[in-house]
């Protein structure tokens, strides 16, 4: 901000969400989560008065961005819409999915509710299909303690293959540790090994048919496995966003279009 401020357009749909960075090395962090898990409380505790709100470009969905400094770096926290899934069944889900996938955040924090963790893990697993750079925040631990729910965070972290940090956002407990994990994931070249969701053999074979070609065309900027799943599923809103992100129509590639058709014909599946 001020004289040193600079804006970076992040390609989300046709329009750009403007992320205001103070320096080029600022890290962009997406804050995802089911509704009512304390996402805004985490966001407000971290960013305080350093925030501004607007709408997502072309959408009547509120967007809040805020700045937080941790150690030697600035983090731009982006409060993406609260959703139960990233299946794009609503505008909120579409915006959330597009930001996690095409906004290229340096990390995504998925805030979850410790009192009903299992239900929240759905969004965590969906996010992990799109990106490796994930930190899971298990919030409302005071409520869970009150209900005598005990969670083995280390075990959960080992299972998921990404950091899992317990927090009580209302009292700011654990937020330092949360930002330590975010710092490490977004600034260091650490390799995480997130859990891989494997589907039925028939789906896996279909993915195998189309994934290498997608990787050839789209490179490493997006998860080719996830795009393969979505192409097989015929998810049109995703295709639109993907083509905008890439700057060309993926299925204009005749070889890929052929492979997708063949895979769909051989394996008539809905994933
Ligand atoms: N007890 C407790 N309440 C919390 C915690 N985090 C958030 N809350 C409360 O949970 C409610 C929903 O929080 P909010 O941040 O609006 O959730 P969001 O919908 O995910 O943005 C609010 O009343 C918060 O004060 C927490 O760690 N412990
Ligand atoms: Mg909120």
Automatic annotation (TrEMBL):
GO CC terms in record: plasma membrane
CDD domains reported in the protein's UniProt record: FeoB
InterPro entries: FeoB_Cyto (IPR041069), FeoB_GTPase (IPR050860), G_FEOB_dom (IPR030389), P-loop_NTPase (IPR027417)
Organism: Acetivibrio straminisolvens JCM 21531
GO molecular function terms noted in the UniProt entry: ferrous iron transmembrane transporter activity; GTP binding
Highest taxon, organism lineage: Bacteria
FeoB-type G domain sequence ranges: 26-188
Stated name of the protein: Ferrous iron transport protein B
Coiled coil: none
